[in-house]
Amino acid sequence: MKLKITSLLVAALSFSPMISSAQETAPATPSAEAEAWIPSTPLEKKAVGLSKTMKKIPGIVSSIKDQATMDVAKKSMTALNMEVDAHVAEIKKLPVPDAAIRKSLSSRMEKEMAALGPQMQQAMMGMIALPPELAPQVQAMMMEFAGNMEKHETDMNKYFESDEDRAEKNGK
Questions:
Q1: Mean per-residue pLDDT for 64-77?
Q2: Between 136 and 36, where is the model more confident?
Q3: pTM assigned to the model
Q4: What is the SS3 string spanning 90-151?
C-alpha cells in the first residue's frame, strides 16, 4: 500500500491556505465496490475499522473556525492518533497474510480511502477563511498525525502492501 494514506495527507498538507476557493472540488463518493465491502476475516474487519478512523480527518479539519474549535480539533486529532495506534496494535496480533491476500487488501483499502484525498483538499481549502495564526497550528496538528502514520508504516506494509507495490518501491 506504500502507506497511500500518508501520501494523501502529505498531498493535502501541501495545499496552501492561500489557494482560491474557486479551485474547490466536491468530495468524491466511494466506489460501489468500496461501499459493498463487507469484511469477512479478522484482518478485513480491522482494515475497515482503520479506514473508518481515517475518514474522520476531513471532518476534524473542517470543524476548525477559530481558536476554540482549533483546540477541540487538536484534542480530536490526539484521540484519533490513539485510535490508529489501537487499530495497528490489534492488526499486529493477526498473522501476516500471503501475497494474494495482501494484494486484495491493498486494492480494497485504496478504494476505501479514495474519497479521502478530495475531502482533505476541500477541508484544507476551507482554511482560507481562518485567521492566519491558525495555519501553523493546523499544519503542526496534521504533521503530528502524518508522523504517527509513518511510525506504523513498516507494520502496515506487512499486512497491506502488495508485492507489486513492494517491488516498485524497492526498484526506485
A1: 96
A2: 136
A3: 0.75
A4: HHHCCCCCCHHHHHHHHHHHHHHCCCHHHHHHHHHHHHHHCCHHHHHHHHHHHHHHHHHHHH
